């Protein structure tokens, strides 16, 4: 039988971690992530520059009238109408936020805490529909209220989601009815 001293001498100790290599990889990874973040931010700014021809957003009139409907929920963004992935970022339209919507005879008032508020006059509203997605947000079928409106020379789709999704159908009906009545008054 071999003595214990010889058995202990035969084993090798575990490899010591090379901390300089590990730190180098971590620093390299952090630099790579920082570069990616910077490139995404530059892309966002560039998109805003390309869309700078969009006029300033209208503000709500002093007396917009009696509210027909109100909604509390989330604003998910705006895109070029019919192109659900072409996000519009100019004038803060690309910023997601909480939202309070108020529909009156004058139009749609969009109040966004922490982001730019805007107003869509009734004669600029084109249609409302239920959809499943808008740039960066995909929900179940009919889970998103999409309002199409004219702004300058552009048609814009803006996506909203109510805290109570059962309200969406009432909003579609009310906006489309308001749209029909303003088109009839314009003729």
Features:
single chain; 187 residues; eight-stranded antiparallel beta sheet; alpha+beta; elongated; two-stranded antiparallel sheet
Description:
The chain has 187 residues and is α+β, with helices and mostly antiparallel strands. Helices cover 31% and strands 31% of the residues. The chain has three helices and ten strands. It has helices at 4-10, 19-50, 168-186; strands at residues 69-80, 87-88, 97-103, 107-111, 118-121, 125-131, 133-134, 137-138, 144-151, 154-162. Strands 1, 2, 3, 4, 5, 6, 9 and 10 form an eight-stranded antiparallel beta sheet that branches. The protein has a two-stranded antiparallel sheet with strand order 7-8. It is elongated, with a radius of gyration of 27 Å. The N and C termini lie far apart (110 Å). The model has no long low-confidence stretch (mean pLDDT 84).
What value does the average pLDDT take?
Answer: 84
Enumerate how many helices there are, as a single number: 3
Structural class: alpha+beta
Q: Can you tell me the overall shape?
A: elongated
Strand segment count? 10
Largest sheet: 8 strands, antiparallel
């Amino acid at each position: 039988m071999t003595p214990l001293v010889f058995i202990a001498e035969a084993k090798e100790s575990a490899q010591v971690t090379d901390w300089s290599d590990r730190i180098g990889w971590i620093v390299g990874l952090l630099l790579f992530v920082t570069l990616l973040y910077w490139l995404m931010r530059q892309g966002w700014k560039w998109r805003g520059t390309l869309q700078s021809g969009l006029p300033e957003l209208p503000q709500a009139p002093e007396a917009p009238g009696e509210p027909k409907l109100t909604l509390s929920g989330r604003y998910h963004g705006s895109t070029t109408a019919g192109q659900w992935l072409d996000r519009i970022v100019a004038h803060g339209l690309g910023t997601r936020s909480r939202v309070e919507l108020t529909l009156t005879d004058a139009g749609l008032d969009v109040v966004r805490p922490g982001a730019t508020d805007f107003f869509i006059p009734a004669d600029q509203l084109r249609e409302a529909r239920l959809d499943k997605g808008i740039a960066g947000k995909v929900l179940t079928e009919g889970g998103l209220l999409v309002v199409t409106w004219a702004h300058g020379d552009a048609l814009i789709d803006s996506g909203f989601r109510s805290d109570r999704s059962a309200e969406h159908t009432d909003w579609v009906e009310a906006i489309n009815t308001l749209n029909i009545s303003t088109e009839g008054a314009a003729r």
